[in-house]
Amino acid sequence: MLINRILLRSGLGLTMSLGMMLFPSCGGAKTSGGDDSIPSENVETTGIPDFNPDSAYNFVKKQVDFGPRVPNSEAHRRAGDWLVSTLRASGGEVTEQTMTLTAFDGTPLESRNIFASFNPDAEKRLLLLAHWDCRPWADEDENPALRRRPVDGANDGASGVGVLLELARLMGRNPLPEGKGVDILLVDAEDWGTDNNEESWAMGTRYFVNNPVKDGYKPSEGILLDMVGSKDATFYKEYFSETASPRLNAEIWSIASSLGFGNMFIPQIGSAVTDDHRPLIDAGIPTIDILDYRNGKGFDPVWHTASDNMDNISSETLGSVGKVLTHYIWK
Ligand SMILES: [Zn+2]
Q: How far is the CA of 174 from the centre of ligand 1 (A)?
C-alpha cells in the first residue's frame, strides 16, 4: 500500500494518499453506534465457530515457506496452486482469474486472483479480501544491501491470507447464516507499486473490479485485511473505510471491544491509505480496511523490510482478528 511521506512529515501522524483533502483531526474519533460497554461475558457465542489462531498461524507459515511470492517467480506459482487447492479443500467454489498485468516499470506480471464462494447462491454477500503477492523489493530496509531483495511478506500479505484461509476452513464445516454468502478474494499484484503513482498499487483488485468473476457480481460490503499478524499490532479505523462505511467500521470495532480486544482495535481514525479497498469503494462496494497502523508512527516497522518474516508474527493477533470476523459473519 501507499504511504505519503510529505504529509507524514507534516506532523499530522497520518499517512495520506495523494490528492486527498485533509480532514479534521477529530473526524470520526468516536464510534457512531458501537456500544463499547458490553462486557465480554454477555456476548452471545452460541453457534459461532471457534477460530483457531494456531491454524491461522500455520497458514501464514506455509505461505512464507514457499519463499517470497513475487509475481513471475516459481514460489509465486507454487503458492498460488496451493492457495487454490486449500480453498477447494475447504469447500469453497473456486474461480481463478489469470491475467498479465503491466507494472509501472513495464514488467509484465503473470498474475492470478483467486476467488472462493461460500453459500454461492445467497444474494446478500460479504467480500473478504487480502493480497497474496509479495513486494519484490525490501526498499524500506535500513540496510541498503537488502533493499533489492524481495520481502518474505509474513505480515504484508500472508497474515491476511492466513486469517482468510482459517475462516474458509470454518465455513466449510459450519453452515453460514441463512441467506448470507461469503466470498474470499485473494488478490495478486498489490505490492509492485511505486511512490507517487496510485495506479501502480492494487493492480489485481483493479483488474477484479473491471472484470467481474460472475455477471453482475456486487457484494453488499467488503472487508480487507492487510498486515494483521504482527505481535505489536494496533488497528485504527482507516479514513477511506470510515467514509465508505462508518456503520461497518463501528460494528467491527464494537465487536472487537466486546471480545476484549479494545487495546488492539482503537476506535479512532488512524490513517488514510491507498490499498486494495480503494478500487472496490470506487466501484460502489463499501469496503473497510483492517490494517496495522501505529498511531503517530506509521505502519508496522518491518513494513517493506527484510524483517517482515515469521519472527514478527503472533498467533494471538491473528486470532483476535479472526475471532472478530467469525462474530461478524455468524452473528
Ligand atoms: Zn506492502
A: 32
